[in-house]
Structure of Photosystem I assembly protein Ycf4:
Amino acid sequence: MNMETLIRRYVIVGERRFSNYWWATVILMGAFGFLMTGILSYTKLSLPIFNTAKDLSFFPQGLLMSFYGSLGILLSFYWWFLIFWNVGGGFNEFNKKDGFIRIFRWGYPGKNRKIDLYYTMKDVESIRVELNQGLDSQRTIYMKLKGKREIPLTGIGQPLTIQEIEKQASELANFLQVSLEGL
């Protein structure tokens, strides 16, 4: 047996998805425009891009635009920090060679920044798939452990097709030699 058949690692993307980069950038640019329009309505200065700012009265339009711009910049910075820290990113490692399972995720900065869980292969009872259809459909793979504990293995915000989730769950159940529930 080679190492590929003994060790499986599934990477979890976390916050470093294209959509997060996109929205953090769009919100930052829009918020900057709102803030600049509010400031220019107060100072009555004119810049080529913000030409109509001098026509706005500062109270209430300019003040509200400054407020919304400030909130948008704070939201964008928060989003950029999440991307930088890669909150929710990590991996699931299933190691038959040494007989353990490792679930690793990055969290928020602080003393619990690293979430690093170890389980033995003997603790796994089954793999369970949960499919919730509807407006906000969720497709999640859980690892059921002895003692009725369930650990989610799929990342949040990673929409997988039903075929992908079935394939991944059945491959994992076969690899761990446990039953597959929920399909």
